[in-house]
Amino acid sequence: MEEALRSIPQVSGIIEKLRGSYPYPVIKKAVREVVERVRADIISGKRSSAEGIYEEVEEKIKELLSPRLKKVINATGVVINTNLGRAPLHPDALEHVREVSVGYSNLEYDLLRRRRGSRNSHVEEILKELTGAESALIVNNNAGAVFLILSALAKGKEVIISRGELVEIGGSFRIPDIMSSSGARLREVGTTNRTRIEDYERAIGEDTALLMKVHKSNFYMVGFAEEVSLEELSSLGKRYGIPTYYDAGSGLLLPLKGLGEPSFGEILRKGIDVVSGSGDKLLGGPQAGIVLGRKEIVETLKKNPLFRVLRVDKMTIAALEKTLLLYMEGREKEIPVLRMLLQKEETIRNRAMRLRRMLAGIEGLKASVVKDTAKPGGGSLPWLELPTYCVSLLHERMSAQTLWERLIYSKPPVIGRVRKDRLLLDMRTVMKGELVFIKKALSEVCRAKRS
Ligand SMILES: *Cc1c(COP(=O)(O)O)cnc(C)c1O
Question: What is the pLDDT of residue 427?
Answer without folding.
Answer: 97
